[in-house]
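Researcher: Sequence of Citrate synthase follows. Predict its structure.
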Amino acid sequence: MADQDAVKEKDAPIKAPGLKGVVALDSELSFIDGEKGELIYRGYTIEDLAEHATYEEVVYLLWNGELPNESELNELRSSLRANRELPDEVLDILRNAPSSAHPMAVLRTAVSALSFFDDEAEVMEEDANRRKATRLLAAIPTIIAAFDRLRKGKEPVAPLDEGSMAYNFLYMLNDEKPGEAAEHTFDVCLVLHADHGLNASTFTSRVIGSTLSDMYSAVSGAIGALKGPLHGGANREVMRMLLDIDKKGADPAEYVRERLANKEKVMGFGHRVYRTMDPRAAILRDMVEDLSEEKNQRKWYDYSLEIMNTMIGDKNINPNVDFFSASTYYMLGLDPDLFTPIFALSRTAGWTAHLLEQWSDNRLIRPRAEYVGPKGKTFVPVENR
Ligand SMILES: CC(=O)SCCNC(=O)CCNC(=O)[C@H](O)C(C)(C)COP(=O)(O)OP(=O)(O)OC[C@H]1O[C@@H](n2cnc3c(N)ncnc32)[C@H](O)[C@@H]1OP(=O)(O)O
Ligand SMILES: O=C([O-])CC(=O)C(=O)O
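Model: Prediction complete. Tokens:
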């Protein structure tokens, strides 16, 4: 019999390692011009949104295609607030997780477990999927904050029935109401991370969604993809590098050159699509500069700038969003291993928006592999091998 996976001429496959340059689907969510360094969510530039929009407005924009009017925004805010509490059983999972567990593994597991307690988990109707997106987005900050407290031997702080997602998250984490500046900085970070085309975790969520599996499965899978250091996990690695430079009193440029000489990657640099500065990195760089002045911690900005200049000067490789977000979060007092879960918190808006888009006109996503293994072998019974 002919090779089952052999293709007819009309379906001749295109080979693209890493799917580089492949356009897999149409999307109305975000546009990236990698040459110019531009990013747009549903028609609005990232600079415009970072300056003027709150994260909740961006969530509404991604889910609905337009910015909300005041009553639409209030409705979204109150449904997010109404869904902040976790089922006791999910809190118990967090209580039973070892304090050494990776917070992304805990988040992945808790998100998956949330589906057990959602009556609509398996309902594949648009309205139900929109409600699930709201419930998921509302619960994720509570999961992250509760686990962080539990692993430090503290009781979780119950979510507030007021305030923005940024405000409530910082409150639940620290058991202290955040100041306006911290809330605003964090909110801008959420806006910057909310969506980014068909990145690896969003692609993962759409692949899972395209089998008509449920939203919890798709978001759990996306969290798994984001965890990796080549994707969202890079922000934690960036902070490890900055802390290592600080501890050793190393010269940042020499430190980076040594890494490059050893053929190691410098985390927070390079991108599949951008050939120039990631526009989110430019916004975050300015935020790091302001924060480091304000907190009297100038060294993080100085180290970062020296690393950036070395990477651009020596390799022409630019920073991505993960580079300057690391020191921003650090100066907000957040633990480095929470940086990627916070990325997941924000990106849940994008993942779920992409799922709604996928299901509005679904087609199974299924690329091909070129078989490069042997053929023509004959089975040999185990006793003869
Ligand atoms: C939110 C995000 O996901 S943003 C990305 C976060 N990830 C990181 O910061 C991890 C570090 N960066 C990388 O590993 C890569 O740049 C990626 C994974 C982001 C993009 O990968 P690709 O598009 O496959 O680019 P690729 O890895 O082919 O890089 C092209 C060349 O630049 C080099 N390069 C790319 N990024 C880096 C880096 N951070 N440090 C050193 N060299 C790099 C590669 O070694 C390669 O060199 P070569 O052609 O001599 O082999
Ligand atoms: O687009 C990508 O490949 C990675 C990225 O920057 C993101 O997901 O924000």
